[in-house]
Amino acid sequence: MESMPKVRRPKLSDAGGDEDHLSALHDDTLIQILLKLCCLAAAARTSILSRRWRHLWALLPKLHFYNATDPRRIRSALAAHEAPTLQELVIVRQDASSGPTGAWLPIAARRLSGLLFCHYLSQRVMARRRAALKLPCFESATGIYMRLGFLRLTLPPSGVFARLSLLHLFQLRLHGMCELGAIVSSPRCPCLGRLLVDDVRGVGGLAIHSESLGQIELYNLPDLQQLTIVAPSLHQLKVQDCFAPVARQPVASISAPHLLQLAWIDDYDQNSVNLGEMAHLQRLVLQQFIVYGKDYIASHNRNCALLLRRFECLHNLVITLHCPPDIANKKYFMEDITRVPDVKLLGLGITACGHSFGASLFHVLRMCTAIRRLNLGLIVAPEHEKLCAHQVVYVISHQAGKPGNSC
Asked: Please, which domain of life does this record's source organism belong to (predicted)?
């Protein structure tokens, strides 16, 4: 049997004449096409189409690495990168190995003029024995997002993040002598506008002195012992689950005279927490008030009530009433709330766990004689939804019927 003759595949240039029209496009247009792939590996593979495409990936202003198992390839790609500026660098990896990561970080710090997004997908990786990752100073970066799976991170002892406006730190362990507060304060971050720190270990004291910060969000800082914030431009502050009331007394000093929104979803003690003058505050969000409980709950609720009484007038107040599943032999604590600020918008969350909450709801509403809008959120099991709905209708109908109220 005679062998079939080999068929030569036509090149791209053979399909439409002497030259394919796609490769004839300007470099800027081809780069925009490659950016649509949102993956550097996919962009590099387009070099098989034509010699014309071979080095285009190196001109991309944004480099995205997904599921990058070998960080040495990231370092090589950054070293070969030829674009005038690197506007965005995205690294998504499965594991949290520190050593190879440190190899590409210094190159990225020199080249990056935009956003760094470094996300390790592995959760709760205890990396105490691994070498700490050394973060260099990104002098030209505008944003840094790092989620490291609790890898240890050493902050740079010197250098100025001159253009940094956004800093998000998630799931990492701070290591070394340089403190986070020194990094995010004005001398080293003169343009920082938003700071978010979530689930970070090793933050014992956090002292922030910033002229530029407008928004600070702090979540789950289990090692925090003292918080100091001096930020004249700050308009939004959220502190949640940062102080463990059983282990220690919260110690905080806040100086933010132009603050508009405060979410203090944490322990509060008027003797050790100084919130300063907040004459412009419009919105206050508090931690949950426990309706029934043992004697040790009384101090928690009393501090929550003290924070409520601190403010005379607010536009928006958000508070949650929590009724535990077991209320047998528990005290009723709603009488601890003796006054709430004059508010126009009241956000009231209720976790009833099948118990009646009409009296608790009415206790709050009867003190809010000036509200114009009520946002009510119920967290109940499906089998209790009908009962809860009847309670809400009854309480609101009686409250709205009073002169001056329009719930």
From this structure: Eukaryota
Full DSSP string of 191-241:
T--EEEEEEEE--SEEEEE-SS--EEEEE--TT--EEEEE-TT--EEEEES
Contact 298, 336 (CB under 8 A): yes
DSSP, collapsed to helix, strand or coil, labels residue 331 as strand
Residue among 18, 11, 15 at smallest CA distance from 48? 11
Element (H, E) at 396: helix 385-400
Distance of CA 10 to the CA centre of its chain: 52
Q: How far is CA 124 from CA 167, 176, 366, in A?
A: 21, 21, 46
Contact 202, 182 (CB under 8 A): no
Task: Give pLDDT tens digits for 341-371.
Answer: 999 999 988 887 665 677 888 888 888 888 8
Question: No. of H helices and E strands in the chain?
Answer: 9, 21
Distance CA 390, CA 208 (A): 48
**Placement of tokens 């009488």 in the chain:** 335
Residues 6+ apart with CB under 8 A from 70: 100
Check if the beta carbon of residue 331 is closer than 8 Å to that of residue 300.
Answer: no
| Dist CA 103 CA 131 (whole Å) | 13
CB 301 within 8 A of CB 333: yes
Give the burial string for 193-217 (b: 16+ CB within 10 Å, else e).
bbbbbbbbbbbeebbbbbebbbbbb
Tens digits of residue pLDDT in 238-287: 999 998 655 568 899 999 999 999 999 988 888 899 999 899 999 999 98
From residue 170, alpha-carbon distances to 198, 209, 210, 299, 331 in Å are: 5, 21, 21, 31, 39
Question: What are φ and ψ of residue 73, in 5° steps?
Answer: -70, -35
- Local structure of residue 388 (DSSP, 8 states): H
Contact between residue 144 and residue 164 where contact means Cβ atoms under 8 Å apart: yes
Distance of CA 211 to the CA centre of its chain: 21
Interior/surface letters 327-347, b for 16+ CB within 10 angstroms, e for the rest: beebeebbebbeebbbbebbb
Q: Report residue 64 as tokens.
A: 């995205």
Instruction: Provide the whole-model pTM.
Output: 0.81
